[in-house]
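Page 47, continued from p. 46.
Same chain as before, 349 aa.
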Amino acid sequence: MLKRTFLKTLLTSTMIAGMGLPALAETPFDGPTSGPKAAEGKTIVVLAADLKNGGILGVTNGVEEAAAKIGWEVRVLDGAGSIQGRTGAIGQAMALQPDGLIINGFDAVEQQAALEGVAEAGIPMVSWHSGPTIGCDAPGGIFANVSTDAMTVSEVAAKWAIEDAGDGVGAVIFTDSTYQIAIDKADRIKETIEAMGGTVLEYVDTPIADTSTRMGPLTTSLLQKYGASWTHALAINDLYFDFMGPALAAAGISGDGAPKAGSAGDGSEAAFQRIRSAQYQAITVAEPLNLQGWQLVDELNRAIQGEACSGYITAPALVTQEGLAKLGDSNAFDPDSPYREAYAAIWGK
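Result:
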């Protein structure tokens, strides 16, 4: 697949000239080329785990863009970062009696009982990041779970830290045990660093939903504990670094100083801005969020019509300041491929 080839080429080139997202000519779309025409007049609901999360917001924007093209109405319900909020959003969604449901950014296991009710009602479900199983027939009655390969994303972030550190990396890893996929990603980061001879100073379990209040004090505490031995901060999501900078600045650390921050997903707009300006984040392993929104709509169109899941898995990209300098003002990883036209052609639009 072309996107996987792109990622491989990107990683190979980094060993020579440093990691970055190069400016590329348009490449062919490597996703599905056939599928059912658009089901007409459908209303779908997006259940967003937390729209403050840049990855979730990016996917939601992609869903809305694709739905406008296919001719569907979209309702977005925000779980606002809490389990209770997400449970309530599912209840609201059921009351709307939609033709399909998109679970956006939360673990299906967390809402198992509520989602069983959705499945029993015969409402098709697709998801983004709903668990460790990627692709077709995900657990919990989900038709397709859209994601990049999370283990590849984690390995890329870990290898960046090892290569960037030179003589020795001292990493702190941030994760959230509310989500199984977050645990799996953090475990792979840890395994990769240690297998390459690096040191994991600490494995910090702190909820994504509480980063605005927790990350400042945590950062200060970790600086006091580890000092200069803390060379890199690695997280399973960009959102952790939305709130780390002020504590680092207060400690007299410059925006491009150590600990350097690297995220194993998702490639939020805020993360791109930090990387571009060298302000307390060095890299992110970005997902094609807008494309994934289009894929979710396509998978849901297949589910609604009883067709097979496409099986398409998108590839991530390692984003650095050097790479962003070649991309102009864009603050999102949007592959330079005609995916919009490809999906529109499948739908007959």
